[in-house]
Amino acid sequence: MKKLLKRFVSVVTILVLTLSFTACSADPNCGNYKCKNVTVDGISVPASQAFDSGADIVLKTAGACDVTIDGHKYGASWKSDSNKITIFLQQTEWAGTLSGNTLNIEVTEINDSEKIKMVMEFEKE
After folding, report:
1. Which position has the higher pLDDT, 20 or 84?
2. Model's pTM, two decimal places?
3. What are the structural domains, with CATH classification, of the chain?
4. Mean pLDDT score of the chain, rounded to an integer?
């Protein structure tokens, strides 16, 4: 009986691990995206100049994602519609487009009644 129980637990464990590895592979958008360039009001700089500790987005299964900016990690969610991606981060929506391995996120902020547009270019690792 113990041997049968051990086999059952082993089979279930293998099945769960296999499904967890293939879950995100079904969605080609899943993965880790590292920020390469930042453009603010038409001026483009490498991400290392804009963010001391870098920036990255990890798109996970079931619409979960992590956004890390300058060493601060935030839990968020995401959805995609064809090549359009929306990230929901702390009461804000980041609209983006995905083309190949490049994810462009556009963020617009109003600061002192001045509109600032920032585009972050991420590359899938």
Report:
1. 84
2. 0.75
3. 28-124 (2.40.128.20)
4. 82
